[in-house]
Amino acid sequence: MYDMDTAHENANVLPAGLTVGVVDEQRAFPLLIERASSGAGACSLNELWDNYREYLDASLYRTGAILFRGFGVSEQTTFASLIAHLKEEMMNYVDGNSPRTKLGSNIYTSTEYPPEFFISLHNELSYAPRWPERLLFCCVEAASEGGETPLVDGRALLAELPAEVVEEFRRRGVKYLRNLHGGKGFGPSWQKTFETDDPAAVESYADNCGMNLQWMEDGSVRLTCVRPATTFHPKTGEEVWFNQADQYHPSTHPPAVYQAMKAFFKGREEKLPQNATFGDDTPIPLEYLEVIREQTRRLLVKFRWQQGDLLLVDNVLTAHGRMPFKGTRKILVAMTAQTAQRDCAKEIA
Questions:
Q1: Nearest 5°: phi and psi at 319?
Q2: Across the strands, what pairs with 177?
Q3: Taking the complete model, does pTM exceed 0.85, yes or no?
Q4: What sections of 137-280 are H helices per DSSP?
Q5: Are 245 and 289 in contact (CB under 8 A)?
Q6: How far is residue 339's CA from residue 179's CA, in Å, rounded to a whole number?
Q7: For the purposes of burial, counting CB atoms within 10 Å of the CB of 280, is it exposed (0-12), middle (13-18) or buried (19 or more)?
Q8: C-beta atoms surrounding 274 within 10 Å
Q9: For residues 149 and 180, what is the distance between their CA atoms, to the nearest angstrom?
């Protein structure tokens, strides 16, 4: 098990020209490492990663996210160069649930939902048997208004949720339902979701991942799977809230939209674009979902993006989302090596 305190205490002192603080004093995260100058002799992100990796790892495990500011990661080429220098195994967005554009070298646009919509907080691919260990976001262009990437600590969220809610989710798990169209329809297609036009490749992926798959006559595919509602960090051993039940459930939509969906799909809920129930197919009480959303809103931290910002997120410890925005916003994202669900499994005492 990773000893965070020892690693942090023994870490090298950061070089001159860098200041260390936190974005939100009350929540004490994310950590903020800011470079005052980009002149000759100023420490680069590559040098910081090479020479202070132990410090960065310990800080990330302690706080859940680090914002690097003043390092000038403001273009796709700069971002790609940094990722190549990290020499980390990167993963693609296969089985992702958000519309994105792949820009090459496992770099993607951030979620492309219309700017007026709030994207609820989630851990990337928490419904899958494998998920990214870390996420890297870089700001190429900040929105003129809004567009923050809110964060919430999954350890804090788990601690603040009512014991009754946590125990029900622990005991029953979460069943996820997705209906992905075959090229024409609302939301993502199965081709874009799995980055392939080959049905056999999708079937192989689903079989390997423990998903139930059913092809529909119209060329769409229905996917279901049951996953745990909490998980344990593979390095620190801490239990965290780690599911997307509140995001998958149709009540995540505005009230008028939710009511219309309920009426339209009544008696045929299996045809909803996506849905979440308990793992035994019983409905999740709406009051449970609302308390999850309420506590998430209460605990979230957000900051104004600045061009050139780089945000490093531990995807198990920290959930992220997107605030509505105005103007042009361009945030790029990359995902490091996959963490398997089995590597985070642990009996709950």
A1: -95, 155
A2: 224, 275
A3: yes
A4: 154-160, 163-172, 190-194, 199-208, 245-248, 255-264
A5: yes
A6: 25
A7: exposed
A8: 19
A9: 26
Q: What separation in angstroms does the CA of 208 have from each of 31, 55, 213, 256?
A: 37, 37, 11, 38
pLDDT digits (tens, 9 = 90+) for 16-26: 889 999 999 99
Can you list the positions of beta strands (E) in 202-327?
212-215, 221-227, 230-232, 239-241, 274-278, 310-314, 318-322, 325-326
User: CB of 59 within 8 A of CB of 21?
Assistant: no
Q: List pLDDT tens digits, range 88-119.
A: 888 777 776 766 777 777 888 887 788 998 99
| Helices and strands per DSSP (H, E), number in the chain | 11, 22
Q: Which stretches of the chain score pLDDT less than 70? A: 1-12, 40-41, 96, 98-99, 339-349
| Residue from 82, 28, 49 nearest 332 by CA | 82
Per-residue pLDDT, 346:
61
Burial class (CB in 10 A: 0-12, 13-18, 19+), 49: middle
Amino acid 229 reads A
Q: Which helix (H) or strand (E) holds 142?
A: none
Written as one string, the DSSP assignment of 305-316 is --TT-EEEEETT
Give the list of residues 6+ apart from residue 254 with CB closer than 8 angstroms, or none: none
Peptide bond into 30 cis (omega under 30): yes
For residue 170, what are the contacts with CB-CB under 8 A and spacing of at least 6?
Answer: 228, 229, 230, 348
Q: Could you tell me the two tokens for 47?
A: 């040098």
Q: Identify any residues that bridge with 91 across adjacent strands, giving them in sequence order.
A: 335
At residue 101, the pLDDT reads 78
At residue 6, the pLDDT reads 45
